[in-house]
Amino acid sequence: MKKSESVLKVLNNVFLVCKSKRAIIALILSYLLFYASYAQDLIVTKTGKTIKCKITGVDSVKINFDYERNGKMISTYALREQVSDFSYGQKPVKTPVLSGQDIIYLKNGSVVKGKITEQIPGETLKIQTNDGSVWVFNYAEIDKITQESEEMNLDEYGGHVSFGVAIGGGGLVGCPLRFGGSKFAFEIAPFFRPVIDLTGGELYPSVMFAGGPAFFSDKFYKAHKQKIKRNGFYIKGGYSLATIGHEAMFSMGWVHESFRLTSKRYSFIFELGPGIIRQDDEFFSHSSAKSRWQFALYWKIHWNWYGS
User: Fold this and answer.
1) 202, 301: one domain
2) pTM above 0.85?
Protein backbone atom coordinates (compact mmCIF):
# COMPACT_ATOMS: atom_id res chain seq x y z
CA MET A 1 0.00 0.00 0.00
CA LYS A 2 1.36 3.42 -0.93
CA LYS A 3 2.03 5.92 1.78
CA SER A 4 -0.54 8.24 0.21
CA GLU A 5 -3.10 5.51 0.83
CA SER A 6 -2.01 4.81 4.38
CA VAL A 7 -4.17 5.75 7.29
CA LEU A 8 -2.70 8.66 9.20
CA LYS A 9 -4.24 9.29 12.56
CA VAL A 10 -3.40 12.30 14.66
CA LEU A 11 -3.36 11.39 18.35
CA ASN A 12 -6.30 13.60 19.18
CA ASN A 13 -6.19 11.90 22.57
CA VAL A 14 -6.83 15.31 24.00
CA PHE A 15 -8.45 17.04 21.08
CA LEU A 16 -10.72 14.28 19.78
CA VAL A 17 -12.04 14.61 16.25
CA CYS A 18 -15.74 13.93 16.32
CA LYS A 19 -19.02 14.65 14.61
CA SER A 20 -20.81 17.96 14.81
CA LYS A 21 -23.43 16.42 17.09
CA ARG A 22 -20.81 15.70 19.74
CA ALA A 23 -19.40 19.21 19.43
CA ILE A 24 -22.85 20.65 20.08
CA ILE A 25 -23.21 18.39 23.11
CA ALA A 26 -19.82 19.61 24.35
CA LEU A 27 -20.94 23.22 23.98
CA ILE A 28 -24.12 22.56 25.96
CA LEU A 29 -22.20 20.63 28.60
CA SER A 30 -19.60 23.37 29.07
CA TYR A 31 -22.28 25.98 29.68
CA LEU A 32 -24.22 23.68 32.01
CA LEU A 33 -21.07 23.12 34.05
CA PHE A 34 -20.50 26.88 34.22
CA TYR A 35 -24.08 27.47 35.38
CA ALA A 36 -24.06 24.56 37.82
CA SER A 37 -21.26 26.21 39.79
CA TYR A 38 -23.83 28.79 40.97
CA ALA A 39 -26.99 26.71 40.96
CA GLN A 40 -27.55 25.69 44.60
CA ASP A 41 -27.66 27.46 47.95
CA LEU A 42 -25.63 26.10 50.86
CA ILE A 43 -25.60 26.58 54.63
CA VAL A 44 -22.57 25.45 56.65
CA THR A 45 -23.10 25.08 60.40
CA LYS A 46 -20.45 25.51 63.09
CA THR A 47 -20.46 21.76 63.59
CA GLY A 48 -19.31 21.30 59.99
CA LYS A 49 -22.64 20.12 58.58
CA THR A 50 -23.50 21.30 55.05
CA ILE A 51 -27.16 21.84 54.13
CA LYS A 52 -28.09 21.99 50.44
CA CYS A 53 -31.18 24.13 50.19
CA LYS A 54 -32.96 27.18 48.80
CA ILE A 55 -32.44 30.23 51.02
CA THR A 56 -35.67 32.22 51.20
CA GLY A 57 -34.75 34.95 53.67
CA VAL A 58 -31.92 36.27 55.84
CA ASP A 59 -32.01 38.65 58.80
CA SER A 60 -29.81 39.39 61.81
CA VAL A 61 -31.25 36.49 63.82
CA LYS A 62 -31.93 33.59 61.46
CA ILE A 63 -31.70 32.21 57.92
CA ASN A 64 -34.95 30.87 56.44
CA PHE A 65 -34.62 28.10 53.89
CA ASP A 66 -36.40 25.26 52.11
CA TYR A 67 -34.91 21.80 51.67
CA GLU A 68 -36.04 18.43 50.35
CA ARG A 69 -36.60 15.47 52.68
CA ASN A 70 -38.19 12.18 51.61
CA GLY A 71 -39.44 13.81 48.42
CA LYS A 72 -41.12 16.71 50.24
CA MET A 73 -40.05 20.34 50.55
CA ILE A 74 -39.61 21.42 54.18
CA SER A 75 -39.52 25.07 55.25
CA THR A 76 -37.44 25.84 58.34
CA TYR A 77 -34.69 28.13 59.63
CA ALA A 78 -31.25 28.16 61.25
CA LEU A 79 -30.12 30.67 63.85
CA ARG A 80 -27.29 32.90 62.62
CA GLU A 81 -25.29 32.04 65.73
CA GLN A 82 -25.31 28.39 64.61
CA VAL A 83 -24.06 29.15 61.09
CA SER A 84 -20.42 29.61 60.10
CA ASP A 85 -21.06 30.34 56.41
CA PHE A 86 -23.83 30.37 53.82
CA SER A 87 -24.01 30.89 50.07
CA TYR A 88 -26.36 31.71 47.23
CA GLY A 89 -25.81 29.44 44.24
CA GLN A 90 -22.64 28.13 45.95
CA LYS A 91 -21.15 31.62 45.80
CA PRO A 92 -20.57 32.66 49.41
CA VAL A 93 -21.94 35.92 50.68
CA LYS A 94 -18.96 36.25 53.01
CA THR A 95 -15.51 34.72 53.04
CA PRO A 96 -14.14 34.49 56.59
CA VAL A 97 -11.76 31.83 57.80
CA LEU A 98 -13.14 30.97 61.22
CA SER A 99 -10.74 30.20 64.05
CA GLY A 100 -13.32 27.93 65.69
CA GLN A 101 -13.40 29.92 68.96
CA ASP A 102 -16.88 31.04 69.98
CA ILE A 103 -17.41 34.02 72.29
CA ILE A 104 -20.44 34.25 74.59
CA TYR A 105 -21.27 37.61 76.14
CA LEU A 106 -23.43 37.24 79.25
CA LYS A 107 -25.87 39.86 80.53
CA ASN A 108 -23.92 40.06 83.83
CA GLY A 109 -20.89 41.33 81.89
CA SER A 110 -18.92 38.07 81.80
CA VAL A 111 -17.31 36.80 78.61
CA VAL A 112 -16.74 33.09 77.95
CA LYS A 113 -14.52 31.86 75.10
CA GLY A 114 -14.38 28.31 73.79
CA LYS A 115 -16.17 25.91 71.46
CA ILE A 116 -19.96 25.56 71.47
CA THR A 117 -20.64 21.82 71.68
CA GLU A 118 -24.42 21.74 72.03
CA GLN A 119 -27.32 24.11 71.48
CA ILE A 120 -31.06 23.85 72.11
CA PRO A 121 -32.44 26.95 70.36
CA GLY A 122 -34.26 29.21 72.80
CA GLU A 123 -33.35 27.07 75.82
CA THR A 124 -29.75 26.17 76.68
CA LEU A 125 -26.25 26.34 75.25
CA LYS A 126 -23.18 24.27 76.21
CA ILE A 127 -19.64 25.55 75.65
CA GLN A 128 -16.25 23.96 76.34
CA THR A 129 -13.48 26.42 77.24
CA ASN A 130 -9.81 26.08 76.33
CA ASP A 131 -8.96 24.60 79.75
CA GLY A 132 -11.45 21.76 79.22
CA SER A 133 -14.20 23.12 81.46
CA VAL A 134 -17.80 22.75 80.24
CA TRP A 135 -20.38 25.45 80.95
CA VAL A 136 -24.11 25.42 80.36
CA PHE A 137 -26.08 28.67 80.04
CA ASN A 138 -29.73 29.48 79.58
CA TYR A 139 -30.47 31.71 76.60
CA ALA A 140 -32.05 34.15 79.05
CA GLU A 141 -28.54 34.73 80.50
CA ILE A 142 -26.92 35.42 77.13
CA ASP A 143 -26.58 38.89 75.62
CA LYS A 144 -24.96 37.84 72.32
CA ILE A 145 -22.80 35.19 70.68
CA THR A 146 -19.98 35.92 68.24
CA GLN A 147 -17.07 34.04 66.72
CA GLU A 148 -13.49 35.17 66.23
CA SER A 149 -12.66 35.34 62.58
CA GLU A 150 -10.05 36.62 60.19
CA GLU A 151 -11.24 38.01 56.89
CA MET A 152 -9.82 36.10 53.98
CA ASN A 153 -8.17 38.08 51.20
CA LEU A 154 -9.01 36.14 48.04
CA ASP A 155 -6.59 38.26 46.02
CA GLU A 156 -3.76 36.41 47.81
CA TYR A 157 -4.68 33.28 45.85
CA GLY A 158 -3.04 33.14 42.44
CA GLY A 159 -0.74 35.73 40.92
CA HIS A 160 0.33 37.40 37.70
CA VAL A 161 2.72 34.84 36.19
CA SER A 162 2.47 31.06 36.37
CA PHE A 163 3.90 27.92 34.81
CA GLY A 164 2.38 24.46 34.66
CA VAL A 165 2.04 21.02 33.15
CA ALA A 166 -1.05 20.05 31.16
CA ILE A 167 -2.61 17.00 29.56
CA GLY A 168 -4.73 17.90 26.56
CA GLY A 169 -5.15 21.40 25.25
CA GLY A 170 -4.06 20.47 21.72
CA GLY A 171 -1.65 17.59 22.30
CA LEU A 172 -0.54 14.75 24.53
CA VAL A 173 1.26 16.96 27.03
CA GLY A 174 2.27 20.60 27.23
CA CYS A 175 3.85 23.27 29.43
CA PRO A 176 1.57 26.33 29.64
CA LEU A 177 2.86 29.76 30.59
CA ARG A 178 0.18 32.17 31.87
CA PHE A 179 0.02 35.91 32.48
CA GLY A 180 -2.87 37.79 34.02
CA GLY A 181 -4.72 38.85 37.13
CA SER A 182 -7.93 38.32 39.06
CA LYS A 183 -10.33 38.55 36.10
CA PHE A 184 -8.16 37.84 33.06
CA ALA A 185 -5.41 35.45 31.99
CA PHE A 186 -3.53 34.86 28.76
CA GLU A 187 -1.88 31.52 28.12
CA ILE A 188 0.65 30.26 25.58
CA ALA A 189 2.10 26.74 25.46
CA PRO A 190 3.84 24.17 23.25
CA PHE A 191 2.11 20.78 23.14
CA PHE A 192 3.64 17.52 21.92
CA ARG A 193 1.21 16.20 19.28
CA PRO A 194 2.54 13.19 17.34
CA VAL A 195 1.10 11.74 14.15
CA ILE A 196 1.24 7.98 13.57
CA ASP A 197 1.16 6.12 10.26
CA LEU A 198 -0.88 3.11 11.34
CA THR A 199 0.08 1.20 8.19
CA GLY A 200 3.82 1.75 8.21
CA GLY A 201 4.17 2.23 11.92
CA GLU A 202 6.09 5.46 11.50
CA LEU A 203 5.86 8.23 14.08
CA TYR A 204 5.89 11.81 12.83
CA PRO A 205 6.81 14.30 15.58
CA SER A 206 4.72 17.40 15.79
CA VAL A 207 4.43 20.39 18.11
CA MET A 208 1.31 22.50 18.41
CA PHE A 209 1.62 26.00 19.81
CA ALA A 210 -1.70 26.88 21.43
CA GLY A 211 -2.93 29.74 23.54
CA GLY A 212 -5.46 32.46 24.10
CA PRO A 213 -7.30 34.52 26.72
CA ALA A 214 -9.58 33.46 29.56
CA PHE A 215 -12.09 35.71 31.32
CA PHE A 216 -13.02 34.91 34.91
CA SER A 217 -15.74 35.80 37.40
CA ASP A 218 -14.87 36.71 41.01
CA LYS A 219 -13.12 34.15 43.18
CA PHE A 220 -15.32 32.57 45.83
CA TYR A 221 -14.84 30.38 48.88
CA LYS A 222 -16.62 27.01 49.21
CA ALA A 223 -16.56 26.31 52.92
CA HIS A 224 -17.64 22.67 52.75
CA LYS A 225 -14.77 21.85 50.37
CA GLN A 226 -12.25 24.28 51.90
CA LYS A 227 -11.34 25.58 48.45
CA ILE A 228 -11.14 28.89 46.60
CA LYS A 229 -12.67 28.69 43.14
CA ARG A 230 -13.42 30.75 40.05
CA ASN A 231 -15.16 30.03 36.76
CA GLY A 232 -14.78 31.62 33.39
CA PHE A 233 -14.80 31.44 29.62
CA TYR A 234 -11.77 30.65 27.46
CA ILE A 235 -10.89 31.24 23.79
CA LYS A 236 -8.09 29.08 22.38
CA GLY A 237 -6.33 28.80 19.05
CA GLY A 238 -3.37 26.71 17.94
CA TYR A 239 -1.11 25.81 15.03
CA SER A 240 1.04 22.69 14.68
CA LEU A 241 4.32 22.19 12.85
CA ALA A 242 4.56 18.60 11.56
CA THR A 243 6.86 16.91 9.04
CA ILE A 244 3.90 15.83 6.88
CA GLY A 245 1.80 18.97 7.07
CA HIS A 246 0.27 21.51 9.38
CA GLU A 247 -2.87 21.75 11.48
CA ALA A 248 -4.81 24.62 13.01
CA MET A 249 -7.39 24.45 15.80
CA PHE A 250 -9.87 26.76 17.50
CA SER A 251 -12.04 26.27 20.59
CA MET A 252 -14.25 28.20 23.03
CA GLY A 253 -15.73 26.93 26.28
CA TRP A 254 -15.79 26.70 30.09
CA VAL A 255 -12.73 27.04 32.34
CA HIS A 256 -12.57 26.33 36.06
CA GLU A 257 -9.71 27.06 38.46
CA SER A 258 -9.51 25.98 42.10
CA PHE A 259 -7.07 26.51 45.00
CA ARG A 260 -6.77 24.56 48.21
CA LEU A 261 -7.26 26.75 51.24
CA THR A 262 -3.65 26.22 52.32
CA SER A 263 -2.09 26.52 48.81
CA LYS A 264 -2.16 30.11 47.62
CA ARG A 265 0.38 29.56 44.81
CA TYR A 266 -0.87 26.27 43.39
CA SER A 267 -4.06 25.73 41.40
CA PHE A 268 -5.85 23.09 39.35
CA ILE A 269 -7.41 24.16 36.04
CA PHE A 270 -9.91 22.31 33.85
CA GLU A 271 -11.16 23.41 30.42
CA LEU A 272 -13.92 21.90 28.29
CA GLY A 273 -15.62 22.99 25.09
CA PRO A 274 -16.28 22.36 21.39
CA GLY A 275 -13.82 23.24 18.68
CA ILE A 276 -12.64 22.69 15.12
CA ILE A 277 -9.44 21.39 13.48
CA ARG A 278 -8.19 22.29 10.01
CA GLN A 279 -5.56 20.28 8.13
CA ASP A 280 -3.61 21.84 5.25
CA ASP A 281 -3.29 20.35 1.77
CA GLU A 282 -0.05 18.46 2.48
CA PHE A 283 -1.47 16.83 5.60
CA PHE A 284 -4.78 16.22 3.85
CA SER A 285 -3.14 14.32 0.99
CA HIS A 286 -1.80 11.79 3.52
CA SER A 287 -5.02 11.42 5.44
CA SER A 288 -8.17 9.39 5.08
CA ALA A 289 -10.24 12.33 6.36
CA LYS A 290 -13.08 13.46 4.11
CA SER A 291 -12.91 17.11 5.07
CA ARG A 292 -10.14 19.57 5.90
CA TRP A 293 -12.41 21.00 8.60
CA GLN A 294 -13.42 18.68 11.41
CA PHE A 295 -15.41 19.29 14.57
CA ALA A 296 -13.68 18.38 17.81
CA LEU A 297 -14.08 18.05 21.56
CA TYR A 298 -11.44 20.08 23.38
CA TRP A 299 -10.41 19.47 26.99
CA LYS A 300 -7.41 20.20 29.15
CA ILE A 301 -6.28 19.17 32.65
CA HIS A 302 -3.73 21.63 33.99
CA TRP A 303 -1.57 21.72 37.16
CA ASN A 304 -0.46 25.30 37.69
CA TRP A 305 2.15 27.04 39.91
CA TYR A 306 2.27 30.81 40.41
CA GLY A 307 5.65 32.48 40.71
CA SER A 308 4.42 36.00 41.36
Assistant:
1) yes
2) no
3-state secondary structure 200-223: CCCEECEEEEEEEEEEECCCEEEC
Structure confidence at residue 175 (pLDDT): 95
Residue 56: CATH number of its domain? 2.30.30
Helical (H) or strand (E) element with 25: helix 20-36
CATH of the domain at 104: 2.30.30.100
Closest CA to 91 of 48, 47, 55, 49: 55
* HSE-CB for 112 with a 13 A CA cutoff: 24
Print the domain residue range for 81: 40-89
CB 8 within 8 A of CB 287: yes
Each residue's pLDDT tens digit, 19-46: 445 555 655 665 555 555 445 778 888 7
As for how many domains the chain has, the answer is: 3
- Answer whether 268's CB lies under 8 Å from 303's CB: yes
